[in-house]
Amino acid sequence: MAKTKQSTDKQARAQALREKDVAGLREEIVSLQKAHFGLRMQAATQQLSNNNVLRQTRRDIARAKTILNQKLAAEQAAKAN
Question: Keyword Ribosomal protein on this protein (predicted)?
């Protein structure tokens, strides 16, 4: 049951990202990168109790970058036609 909840959370986050435009995605990536940096600093100073948050944030950044690249590729393909 836990895996089902995780997969729906991932799908919900991906869907929310897909609804954003290119500028919104870029802002989201910057925001996630800042959050990830803060989490890394907490981990380095032994203040972070849940290290899985680092992995989640890193994957959220990758997810946002992937969707951004898909949107940019779709825009270029539309311009080419």
Answer: yes
